[in-house]
Amino acid sequence: MIPLSKIMDAKARLEGIVQHTKLAFAPKLSQISGAKVYVKQENLQNTGSFKLRGAFNKISSLNPDERACGVIASSAGNHAQGVAYSAKHYGIKGVIVMPEATPLLKVMGVKELGAEAILKGNNYDEAYSYALEYAKTHNLQFIHPFADEEVIAGQGTVALEMIEDQSHLTTIVVPIGGGGLISGIAAAYKQMLPQVRIIGVVAEGAPGMYHSYHKKEIQSTQSVRTIADGIAVRDVNPKNFEYILESVDEVVMVDDEEIANAVLYLLENQKLVVEGAGASVVAAVLHHKFAIGENESLGLVLSGGNIDVTMLGNIIEKGLVRSHRKMRICVTLIDKPGSLQKLSDLLSSGGANIVKIDFDRTSAAFGDTNITMVLETKGKEHQNAIRSQLQKQGYVFAEL
């Protein structure tokens, strides 16, 4: 694994560049899990994620001639902003190659930091291949997002801060994409507090590292698809795979529904905006993906907060439906004056708030109209009461 001395050197280089982010107690998560749970708020780090640590450490470790040539990186977004920030700090050229589907928020974040953004490829791995060729033809230093010792050492400084703040933690839960973050964190813990359990969390839509870990050999993946774009890595890097086999105690997997639940949970209960990759560790706790013993203290690394606003809106909307705070119904009415008013009064008396309404005569029988409504409700029992009232009054309706 990465020597502890490298991580200590990285901590010195990052002094004054990164924030020592808060390791905050999470009371509701603690109640759910039966353990004391703390969340490491790297979503509030400069540039919005832990990636600044590794990127800056790598660039600062280059000799002046190498650095003067400029740097290039491939990234879904967070490493991109870390490299762009570091390039701006040193006053050098920065080029970032990003997958074509990268959220606009992350593309704009790179440009605002003064770097050039090139959109290429359907996923990280295709962007990575293009960036390597571009680096050769333009004489730029390639800054790997995870398979580089100096990058991993920089990410390992997260663990140094956690140990400084709460040395009693028994289990650390970390997202896994390429594996740089967990390799650095695990290296620090296993050399300083080897009894601490390290658990990695993989997205079901990018399962390469999960299957590789459990079969103890690299398993290829044809494609990736997950809302957790920060950990949507297709190919398993051999170097990081060996680090993970050596120092990680368990790897678990969460699906997109579970990740979305966790994003909404953090927003409502911790008042934190966290992207899918960072929320994956909370999803693993909420959905009981690993065993938690008595008197345990968990440290969950919320790796980033750069979530696309459109994605966040979709997660909130679906979350409201799943938690029975919104329902969508289609009611067939006789197409005459007063029919809608009567239905509206019934819903109002039952405490439902109509937030959207559409009319459609073409799909109904002659003389009827179909009314599609979105209702704000107060939970499962409230929705059952609304259904009961509609049935008692003889309404024909369907839920959408």
Give your account of this protein's structure.
By secondary structure, the protein is an alpha/beta fold. The chain is 46% helix and 19% strand. It contains 16 helices and 14 strands. Strands 1-2-10-7-8-9 form a six-stranded mixed β-sheet, sandwiched between helices. α12 crosses α14 (309-322).
Helix content: 40-55%
Query: What series of H and E elements makes up the topology?
Result: HEHEHHEHEHEHEHEHEHHEHHEHEHEEHE
Please give the count of helices: 16
Beta-strand portion reads: 15-25%
Structural class: alpha/beta
Main sheet record: 6 strands, mixed
- Determine the mean pLDDT: 95
Low-confidence stretches: none
Order of neighbouring strands in the sheet with most strands: 1-2-10-7-8-9
**What is the number of beta strands?**
14
